[in-house]
Amino acid sequence: MSAQSKAQTGQQIVEAALAASTADGAVAYVVDSSEANLRWASNSLTTNGAMRSRQVVVISFIDGGAGMAAGTVARTGTPDVAELVEASEQAARDAGPAEDAMPLISPGDPLAPTATGDWDAEPATTSIEVFGDVAPALGQAFGEAGGRDELLFGFAEHQMATTYLGTSTGLRLRHDQPTGRVELNGKSRDFGRSVWAGVGTRDFSDVSIEALAADVQRKMAWSQRRVELPAGRYETLLPPSAVSDLMIYAYWTMEARDADEGRNVYARAGGGNRTGERICGLPLTLRSDPAEPGLECAPFQTVGGSSGAASVFDNGMATPAVDWISGGVLGNLIRPRAWALQQTAPATAALDNLVLELPGATATTEEMIASTERGLLLTTLWYIREVDPQSLLLTGLTRDGVFLVENGEVTGAVNNFRFNESPVSLLGRANQASRTERTLPREWNDWFTRAAMPMLRVPDFNMSSVSPAS
């Protein structure tokens, strides 16, 4: 590889790929990423580091006479652009006609984004300096935990990813996406007790290690008394992190085609989908918005491979704000343009953030605990797996703290459980929601960090069996 090719910018690679294309249409995008991290264990910082990476994707569209076909090839680093374009064109020639074929988005199309970003600017970056206030605060937290004979483990990560997307129709789009998270685990010396706190962030300016450590300390104090409970249905307080993991799964499965063809929980008995049907007992709203303060995400689609939720032909399509559920009523499903055309329904794109809220809700976590006569308070869920797509029945385990609430107070920690629940069914049964706050999904935060959720009270959460996990 020549020194000149190594020095190519993301924009230059996109332009070179489009210029080299001999296909009937092409999309090229580059994602330049810069990452930094801190890790700690047993009350001591262990590692820190920074890295950079690049992904280059070329999608070629070729009409072989029977219909338009698409071929995608991706590389990391700075590849030979001509070879990459040739490989994607061969992939398109080898593929059959695409059932999601549509004309590529062009500038000025009704579905083209109005915000295009600064195409010519250098990619955004991060560095270890983003943790300037985190490291000293951790030192203080380590000392305090050690004084209680407790241990802290965890990590902080920050990424800046710049996407440059170009198409043969003339679109040139750029987006900078900051993504950060902190996870803090508290453990007893014998590892018999474990609790968790975490938060998502754009730039760490809003992260309070002191507040996270205080949350961990409080939960460790709660867990000093142990209570064994059997499996069964319990009134349960689901904190925002647990709610986000369940709602993200409900969101990921909101594919209109699967619903229209009777394959998911959003299918209507007798045919069609449940749009317009009330699915929440409370007038909850589930929504996504690329401009949501603190949760900002890309205002256009970047798609490497077609699925029921996205199409490579829709690259560059705007992703405006959308209410998936409004006032408790299912309002929209995820629908690429090709399926939208077949169903004479609006094309609706998925976004990279999710907000669940009950308008006017003001209750705090503390107030919801105080109003609980007897129930369980969870910390997080993990190992979530789908059991039945028709009802969206999920199974998984509780993790890092299940607490017993009696007469408005936490009186101890109980054993972990395996649960069997559908997030859609939970929305129908939840009878109280707190105010919404930014949270960090525990199970899905490798892929999805931008979420804001309330605590939900569910009167009969199904703890299907006792888990031996500690």
3D structure, described in words:
The protein is of the alpha+beta class. It is 20% helix and 37% strand. It has helices at residues 3-6, 10-20, 81-94, 134-147, 209-222, 240-252, 256-260, 337-343, 365-370, 423-429; strands at 25-41, 44-63, 68-76, 150-167, 172-188, 194-201, 226-227, 232-238, 285-288, 322-326, 329-330, 354-357, 374-388, 393-406, 409-414, 417-421, 432-433, 437-439, 451-453, 456-466. The strands form 3 sheets. Strands 3-2-1-4-5-6 form a 6-stranded antiparallel β-sheet. A 6-stranded mixed β-sheet has the order 11-10-9-12-19-18, with helices on one face. Strands 8-13-14-16-20 form a 5-stranded mixed β-barrel. Helix 2 (10-20) crosses helix 3 and helix 4 packs parallel to helix 5. The longest helix is centred in the N-terminal third of the chain and has 14 residues, at 81-94. InterPro entries: Metalloprtase-TldD/E_C, TldD/PmbA_N, TldD/PmbA_sf. This is Metallopeptidase TldD-related protein. Residues 232-464 form the Metalloprotease TldD/E C-terminal domain.
Features:
single chain, 470 residues, alpha+beta, six-stranded antiparallel sheet, 10 helices, 20% helix, globular, disordered N terminus
Give a quick rundown of the structure.
This protein is of the alpha+beta class. The protein contains ten helices and 20 strands. Helices cover 20% and strands 37% of the residues.
